[in-house]
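User: Okay, second chain of the day. Same drill as before: sequence in, structure tokens out.
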Amino acid sequence: MNFKNIDPDIILKYDKQLPRYTSYPTAPHFKQADDDQLYRNWLKEIPHNSTISLYFHIPFCEKLCWYCGCNTQIINHYSPVERYLTYLKKEIYLISDLISDKNLKICHIHFGGGSPTIIDPKNFEDLFSHIRKNFDILPNAEIAIEVDPRNIDEEKAKIYKKVGINRVSFGVQDFDLNVQKLINRVQPFELVEKICNLFRKYNINNINFDFIYGLPGQNVKIITKNINLIQKLNPDRIAFFGYAHVPWVKKYMRFIKDEDLPNAKDRIDLYNIIAQNLHKIGYEAIGLDHFAKKNSDIILELKNKKLKRNFQGYSTDKANILIGIGISSISYLPSGYAQNNTKNIPYPKLIDEGKLPISKIIKITKEDKIRKLIIDKIMCYLAVDLTDFINEFNLESNYFDQELQNLKELESENLIIINDKKITINPKTPQIARVTASFFDEYFDNGVGNRHSRAI
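Assistant: Same drill. Structure tokens below.
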């Protein structure tokens, strides 16, 4: 296909607030749940012999990172973690008790946060023992944990190996000391290197790095140095997320000065340097913002068109059902999405009453499922053939004609190519994936609030 380099000014015409499409419908469109009954029914209705993915949210950190958009709270002593784990185990039991098929297989587990590595090793081993008692975990399940290098020691690495952790995702963000100071997350390169070596000592070799571009103080020189240091540490996968500056949502982001942030054109330059330099050292691009070694399992899934996109980004998770456990976690079941309470006060109260702590829920329709699949294709592969969906779901041949017509402007700018009903995004402008996906989002309204980060 004849894709050309695009003038940044053309890309910036589409720099509006858009969802990241880690779900569809997206979280702002979930409805207030009156009680937990609908979610209970969905758990009971999980089809027999299903494979399940579990997500555990640990909403605690020792220090506040000013860039962070996660649901977390800062603690200066350990007792809130111990108390929370007590209720997390109760929620695990409540959920497993509702699932009628006790032979459901768990193929993927992810511990996120916050900082799940804040948990004491003995407490973590106890938590994992409780998970195993209540769920049947496949021997080859991927078990991943998000890592804050500042609170890892050898005892924790030993326990992770013992319980079966086989993938670790480092929160790096940037190796430059000045950038680290501007985001209030100081962790020297030498520390990250030390913890990488520690995990490899215990044969935990699947290592991801999470970086962010668009942070205060970043420039091309700093990004280039980051790539050189990445090459030295040799991670399996890298996520390079665009910084989402939403101080109207996260008030502490106001500590980051607007004048320190790269402007939109600079962000495009930074992304281009990232993509080009990572490619030079042996990483392939995945979708919007991920990169992986050319021989990695996620690249194989990409090539075989089996890649998944979920709340953690791009994944090889093979499950079609996700059960979220803990404050703010989101579940995805055949009938819809359900989100746990995001506040630390109602969560234990509801569990003490024997209730699941659901605060928001949305039942998905057939139309939602079709559009989710289309959006997932766009976000994963930067391409979608609408004819496949017309045939699979017995739709009228003109079903998506309005969306195709609306996309003509993007095509005229050479940001996408439309061939009959196949849409392909210019690989030089992957940022346009979110823009393209939004044309298939029936819930999205340009005029509704400032709920999303900017696309570019």
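The longest helix spans residues 79-98.

User: Thanks, on to the next one.
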